[in-house]
Write a structure and sequence with these properties.
alpha/beta, TIM Barrel, 6-stranded parallel β-sheet, 9 strands, 16% strand, globular, binds 3-phosphoglyceric acid
């Protein structure tokens, strides 16, 4: 898959809803009810971070949930890419971008949302054909003001900001012409997952899905 095609695929996924939940699962048994809760609340695109031993099993389980589109986040190495693809991930997300990681995503046909935080990083990815990029760490790297400023000279790149995005600050990002959606973990807090409060998570998702 070329970078251009990866961005076309990621754009479609990013357009499904304003927010992509960033998920950390400690127990793969929570995967299906969590995905169902988020999809029911109107957030179909789900990013499961490869930060826990349960992550790949969680992706495998979530891949069967109707209406969901499950991707793998925190891709750092070519091995991560291969494992994510084998588990059924439909897209990948990385906090940054390395030559090895980009090559692995192309080789394994995994549409990648690669991370950038500066104009140079965005330009390097654009040179290769990535027009849809993750802006990370969004709040720490300057927030909506930084994305707006980068958009003046580089309007052809559109971003999914992630890292410190909340229900409160998301509207400022989503109002920008070069922001396509945003990622955040607040819609699936650890406390609600541990309590198996799936109704509470659907409520948070519904609130997030109404952000426009
Ligand atoms: C991450 O990589 O953890 C994401 O950027 C999510 O960040 P958040 O927990 O601040 O939403």
């Amino acid at each position: 898959m070329t970078p251009n095609n990866a961005s076309i695929a990621c754009e479609k996924i990013c357009r499904l809803a304003p927010i992509v939940p960033v998920l950390v699962l400690d127990d793969a048994a929570d995967a299906i009810p969590l995905a169902q809760a988020l999809v029911a609340g109107g957030l179909p695109a789900l990013e499961v971070t490869l930060r826990t031993p349960a992550a790949l099993d969680a992706i495998r389980a979530m891949a069967s949930v109707p209406g969901g589109v499950v991707g793998a986040g925190t891709l750092l190495t070519p091995q991560d890419v291969k494992a994510a693809k084998q588990a059924g991930a439909k897209f990948g997300v990385s906090p940054g971008a390395t030559a090895q990681l980009l090559a692995a995503c192309m080789e394994h046909d995994l549409p990648l949302l690669p991370g950038a935080a500066t104009a140079t990083e965005a330009m390097r990815l654009l040179e290769q054909g990535y027009t849809i990029q993750k802006f990370f760490p969004a709040e720490a790297a300057g927030g909506a003001a930084a994305i707006k400023a980068i958009g003046a000279p580089i309007p052809q790149v559109r971003f999914c900001p992630t890292g410190g995005v909340t229900l409160q600050n998301a509207p400022a990002y989503l109002a920008l012409p070069n922001t396509i959606c945003a990622g955040g973990s607040w819609v699936a807090p650890k406390s609600l997952i541990m309590a198996k409060d799936w109704g509470g998570i659907t409520k948070l998702a519904a609130e997030a899905s109404r952000l426009a």
